Amino acid sequence: MTENMNRSTEEKKFMRPGHHWLFKFGDAGDGTSCKKKFNLARHSSEDYRGTRFYNGQQALAVERWLNRVEEDASGLTFEEIADASQSQDANASQSPVAMLIISSELRAAGFTPREVIPPALEVATRGSRRMYRAGLRRLQGMGPKRIVLSADNNNYFRSRCE
């Protein structure tokens, strides 16, 4: 999670103390998510792929960002996007945003959010014991994946960011 990602129009209505974003770690090519460690002189910084890093920080690879969905007023349902450049607010004339996060902005890791199937398929599976949700999640072309964060996790993450 980070507090320092470009704020999309959709996200602004969810902004309040302890605001956070969700993402999935990526592979930096060596089996870890660490792209680069910064060992710099005191009070100096380095720009790396469009992001400023300071001594002791690490650039962590991000595979997928999760944005809150507009129709969930609680802000607990997220939708997976392939990369930040696919966001509604992305400017096609600018180069893509680096899929990185600064290690010092990480607030929590290792939790398991719940994946939900698209609403249209949820309705179709009600009342049918022959349909298995796990199989339905693998269907292609059914729209972006949706992830639900528990209210307890959300409150815990917000308390750590305040």
Features:
disordered N terminus; 25% strand; globular; 4 helices; 162 residues; seven-stranded antiparallel β-sheet
Mean pLDDT across the residues is: 75
Sequence stretches where pLDDT stays below 50 over 5 or more residues: 1-7
Question: How many structural domains in the coordinates?
Answer: 1
**First-residue to last-residue Cα separation:** 14 Å
Helix content: 10-25%
In percent terms, what proportion of residues is strand? 25-35%
Describe the main β-sheet briefly.
7 strands, antiparallel
Question: How would you describe what is shown here?
Answer:
The chain is built from 4 helices and 9 strands. Residues 1-7 have low confidence and may be disordered. The protein has 162 residues and is α+β, with helices and mostly antiparallel strands. A hairpin with an 8-residue loop joins β5 (58-68) and β6. It has one domain (9-161). The two termini are 14 Å apart. The strands form 2 sheets. Strands 1, 2, 5, 6, 7, 8 and 9 form a 7-stranded antiparallel β-sheet that branches. Strands 3-4 form a two-stranded antiparallel ribbon. The chain is globular, with a radius of gyration of 18 Å. The longest helix is centred in the last third of the chain and has 11 residues, at 151-161.
